[in-house]
Specification:
By secondary structure, chain A is α/β, with parallel strands linked by helices. Chain A has 13 helices and nine strands. Helices cover 31% and strands 23% of the residues of chain B. The chains are: A alpha/beta (312), B alpha/beta (426).
Chain lengths: 312, 426
């Protein structure tokens, strides 16, 4: 595997900057990385001497760990910057934080931030490549890549697959990046959730299908993805109770009968068992939810490898 | 000082005519051909246009309180550079301009150090908090031309009704920034396609429209004189159209940015595309252009809102709302609307001069013998590069930073004094 020049030094803000072929190339690279992760000694020297910074301005243990593990397994040095937004607002600006970090010789940033467009800002002030680990409700391209990888691994080519994503579409960056990526690879995506949690113009912006009724949304689906339903949406007045939400939108044996028989079950985590998904589905043989996590490390390794031009 | 302007195309009654102007003791004394006058200062306009000095009903001079963003000196210098000879300043200063002492401070500073006439707008409510009526009658006696809580919006309809009754009692126009807080929420950009795509909280058109609908009804009931600031949606225009058809004393203004930019400008996350109201859909923009053309929109106002670099150089949703506009207003619209054939030069100049004067009953707005010598000389064939060095405002927060635009202001004369002159003329 030789790093190809079209990835070297590039940013991963979102999947819209990447062609179908480039996404496939990343998936192939991730496949190689996954093999490494299954070895007894899970480490290759390819990024030795490179420094990767995980800049997490929004709390996320799981994604940060995944990025850091990926960097470690490629033998890069990892530094971690964590701050709550409030702390950052009180003191140093993001701009100054980046100047400070940059002075320490960072080669690649992986950023998570509550504000859309922050990865672009980090790149603007550092001049270094940036991988977006989630910016507000905007984008989460590495999650989309690992979701796509998980589907591709199980079902092969995504072309023509019907993928249904159910839940709080409004607040989901996972959906937005997945819509771009999955549809680029030829899948047909339907999004489903209550109207209060559905952004306007979804059809015209993404070319996807919008359904408010779960049975109709799940009809003949090859892949079903649930999204985390957050309790605070209730206090925002967007739906009345978790119970009522669950009654209409839970993924269960009962509701999944509308989907294809062996439809793949996915969830980006963390799950609210009993709210958006029942254990009978989350833990079923159709579910790839745990594998998604493993694939996340592989996909992030592949991206770091390609962007920093690691040596095979 | 006597100023003799020769070789100019003078704009009078909607027409450009080759003629000359003689200014003496703050007034235009003669307009005609071959005046052969003697003067201390002779300006050879080299065929440039002489327009009435522009009037801006909506600027934020940030003085007192936020003088790191702008002050009366730099703000009026920027005005003169943009061809403006008069500006109305909004009261969201620190402290808020809600009392006679604050009004007099601005008037005094402007008179002594300003490069343009400054008309003060007082607050509608004390501290613009939307809780109690300000001492607007006292401020009116002190010379304010209107009241506004701009940047904020009185949410309580009962209080707003009282403010309108009180203002109409003393013949004070109200200027409203229409924004329903609950609907606006933590919105960052227009609730539309781009908002869906970028995942921001949205500022729905409805947040503007429901307040405009409410305030038109309150104005009808109270007899208040209502001016709607920075109108931005097609539906808002429909509401104003209905009000005007009824014969209600309702007027409105539009900003240059809402006339030439739409929500798509936000795609690059440039915080200089973040303002309130937000850049709307293309449909809304086109409705604004049409309404400016047919007179439904009365005039153009810049909503000049300076913010320092360190404030704007932030994550998009942490950056403040607003952009500067005094210097780029005419060039941007001349290029995008006049040169593209969508708007006549005549209407553009009117919307910058006589129309805003009419809205608030201000002097000026036309070139006539015996009137104050407020004018600007613009070379339509020359461009200005809006680099940080060339922008006279203290802040540089404009989406047209480093753009070169036609319609270069060569001289501005305010009250018979040269308030701006291009370095090429020095």
């Amino acid at each position: 595997m030789t790093p190809t020049p079209q990835f070297l030094g590039r940013n991963m803000f979102d999947l819209d900057d990447y062609s179908r072929e480039e996404i496939m190339y990343i998936l192939e690279a991730a496949k190689g990385m996954k093999e490494i992760n299954l070895r007894e000694y899970k480490k290759i020297p390819t990024l030795r001497g490179k420094t990767i910074c995980t800049l997490f301005i929004e709390n996320s243990t799981r994604t940060r760990m995944s990025f850091e593990l990926a960097a470690n397994r490629l033998s890069a040095d990892v530094v971690s910057f964590q701050a709550s937004i409030s702390a950052l607002q009180k003191g140093e600006s993001l701009q100054d934080t980046v100047y400070t970090l940059d002075a320490m010789g960072i080669d690649l940033y992986c950023i998570r931030h509550s504000s859309p467009g922050s990865p672009q800002l980090v790149h603007k002030h550092s001049g270094k490549p940036v991988i977006n680990g989630g910016d507000g409700r905007h984008a989460h391209p590495t999650q989309a890549l690992l979701d796509i990888f998980s589907i591709w691994e199980k079902l092969g080519d995504l072309k023509g697959l019907k993928i249904t994503i159910v839940g709080d579409i409004l607040n989901s960056r996972v959906v937005r990046s997945n819509l771009i990526g999955m549809q680029k690879l030829g899948a047909k995506v339907t999004v489903c959730g209550p109207k209060t949690l559905m952004p306007g113009n979804m059809e015209s912006v993404y070319g996807c299908k919008v359904e408010y009724d779960l049975a109709r949304a799940l009809k003949d689906a090859d892949v079903v993805m649930g999204l985390r339903m957050q309790l605070e949406r209730m206090t925002e007045g967007l739906f009345p109770s978790l119970e009522e939400y669950s009654k209409h939108y839970v993924l269960s044996k009962d509701t999944l009968k509308y989907a294809k028989r062996h439809a793949l079950i996915m969830h980006p985590g963390p799950m609210n068992r009993g709210v958006e998904i029942l254990p009978e589905i989350a833990d079923s043989s159709q579910s790839v939810i745990v594998e998604q996590v493993a694939n996340g490390v592989a996909v992030r390794m592949a991206l770091m490898f390609l962007i920093l031009g690691g040596k095979a | 000082m006597k100023i003799y302007i020769k070789n100019a195309n003078i704009y009078q009654n909607g027409k450009l005519k080759k003629s000359e102007i003689l200014i003496d003791r703050k007034k235009i004394v003669k307009i005609g051909t071959k005046l052969n006058a003697s003067a201390e200062k002779i300006i050879d306009a080299q065929g440039a246009c002489v327009f009435p000095g522009f009037i801006d009903l909506h600027v934020h001079l940030r003085d007192p309180g936020h003088t790191y963003k702008e002050d009366i000196v730099t703000g009026t210098k920027a005005a003169a550079h943009g061809g403006f000879t008069a500006v109305c300043c909004m009261p969201n200063t620190e402290p808020v301009t809600d009392n006679i002492a604050s009004v007099e401070y601005i008037q005094l500073r402007a008179k002594e150090h300003g490069s343009a006439k400054v008309y003060v707008i007082g607050a509608i409510t004390k501290g613009s908090k939307g809780e109690e009526i300000s001492e607007m009658a006292t401020m009116k006696n002190g010379g304010i031309v209107a009241v506004s809580d701009d940047g904020k919006c009185v949410q309580n309809a009962r209080l707003m009704l009282a403010c309108m009754k009180y203002a109409s009692n003393f013949d004070i126009p109200l200027i409203i920034h229409a924004e329903d807080y609950a609907l606006a929420g933590k919105g960052q950009i227009h609730s539309g396609k781009i908002c869906t795509q970028l995942g921001f909280s949205g500022l729905p058109a409805l947040a503007e429209e429901v307040i405009i609908a409410r305030d038109i009804m309150l104005a009808e009931s109270s007899g208040a004189r209502l001016h709607i600031a920075h109108i931005s949606t097609a539906k808002s225009l429909e509401l104003v159209s209905q009000a005007k058809q009824k014969g209600l004393p309702v007027t409105c203004e539009v900003t240059p940015h809402h006339l030439v930019l739409n929500e798509e400008a936000v795609l690059g996350f440039d915080t200089n595309t973040k303002m309130k109201p937000p850049l709307r859909s293309e449909k809304d923009r086109l409705a604004c252009v049409e309404a400016l053309k047919n007179g439904l929109i009365d005039c153009i106002a810049t909503d000049h809102a300076p913010h320092a670099d360190f404030e704007k150089e932030k994550e998009f949703d942490h950056a403040p709302f607003g952009i500067i506009g005094l210097e780029t207003a005419f060039p941007v619209l001349y290029k995008q609307l006049v040169l593209s054939g969508q708007l006549s030069l005549e209407r553009l100049v009117e919307a910058f001069s006589s129309a805003p004067a009419k809205v608030l009953g201000l002097p000026g707005g036309s070139l006539d013998e015996g009137k104050a010598a407020d004018l600007t000389i613009i070379d339509l064939n020359k461009e200005t590069l809006f680099s940080p060095e060339n922008i006279l405002s203290k802040s540089k927060n404009t989406p047209w930073l480093n753009h070169s635009l036609p319609g270069r202001v060569m001289w501005t004369i305010c009250n018979g004094n040269i308030s701006y002159q291009d370095f090429q003329n020095e």
